[in-house]
Amino acid sequence: MIHFQVQDMSCNHCVGAISQALKAADPDAQVTIDLARHLVSVVPARADTPVLQSAIAKAGYTPVPVSPALAETAARTGGCCGGCR
Predict the structure, then answer these.
(1) Which of 9, 26, 82, 84 allows an S-S link to 14, with CB 3.0 to 4.6 Å?
(2) pLDDT in tens, 5-34
(3) Is position 85 within any domain?
């Protein structure tokens, strides 16, 4: 699974735009987006991290790859470091 922190994702329109961009880059990918935590998780079928990151960027957002451990911390604490709940 590949994770991106996308701090400028702020609404459901953003979620839809990012989902569409990722599906265009890798139609068979599984995409999960947690808007509250600004976290995009992708189980790619074919694409790699740079391709997926580029797709999100072309949609107008600033994705930052994060490690699985950091993504798990965000899921448990409500933020990337626990301080931004």
Answers:
(1) 9
(2) 999 999 999 999 999 999 999 999 999 999
(3) no
